[in-house]
Design brief:
heterodimer, A: mainly beta, B: about 120 residues, four-stranded antiparallel sheet
């Protein structure tokens, strides 16, 4: 079946540094990638939507200069948290959608980010 | 904007029994999809079941079935013969073309399965 590899699975970084999270579709082309954020014991909140070769569309309240999303190819999308602060600590999940797979969703395994 | 409401933060069921998780949604659209996802402690999102709004027949996947009431905007999940492995967070989700195909999730229901 479809697989999305998300790395790293967990990362600890110092306040003020940047962290890049990668999501790679292994056996299909991801037409669209959704990025979600999940705080402990809460739901998944959509941060942004990215289509290959286009600028990402951010949800209201999400700082696009802080959360940089790149979807340069049909198999790779990245989320970079710039100048991370402790309040950015969260669980980040990507979800790929493929036209070829009838728009079914494939989720990455998530990245737990801790900013100290 | 569409909203998805799960009114049960926690539910408990005994092994082999049946449990129903509630979900209601608010939309003005006629063409949409509804989903139930399971998130175990590993936090990997797992699709449980999916329902197209234009289909009147309730979706079924083995021990999992839904009660889709379109007029009432209700989409409950029934788990039959509950197993210990069913313990997880369950999220109801909504998707339509107008939402750009992004999933809109409810707050989730934590299901505990007791032996």
């Amino acid at each position: 079946g479809a697989v999305v590899s998300q790395h790293p699975s967990w990362v600890i970084c110092k306040s003020g540094t940047s962290v890049k999270i990668e999501c790679r579709s292994l056996d299909f082309q991801a037409t669209t990638m959704f990025w979600y954020r999940q705080f402990p014991k809460q739901s998944l909140m959509l941060m942004a939507t990215s289509n290959e070769g286009s600028k990402a569309t951010y949800e209201q309240g999400v700082e696009k200069d802080k959360f940089l999303i790149n979807h340069a190819s049909l198999t790779l999308s990245t989320l970079t948290v710039t100048s991370a602060h402790p309040e950015d600590s969260s669980f980040y999940i990507c979800s790929a959608v493929s036209r070829a797979k009838n728009y079914g969703y494939t989720f990455g395994s998530g990245t737990r980010l801790t900013v100290v | 904007a569409q909203t998805v409401t799960q009114s049960q933060p926690e539910m408990s069921v005994q092994e082999a029994e049946t449990v129903t998780l509630s979900c209601t949604y608010d939309t003005s659209e006629s063409d949409y999809y509804l989903f139930w996802y399971k998130q175990p402690p590993s936090r990997q999102m797992i699709l449980v079941i999916r329902q197209e709004a234009y289909k009147q027949q309730n979706a079924t996947e083995n021990r999992f079935s839904v009660n889709f009431q379109k007029a009432a905007k209700s989409f409950s999940l029934k788990i039959s013969d509950s197993q210990l492995g069913d313990a997880a967070m369950y999220f109801c989700a909504y998707r339509s073309a107008m939402s750009g195909y992004a999933l809109n999730f409810g707050k989730g229901t934590s299901l505990l399965v007791t032996p």
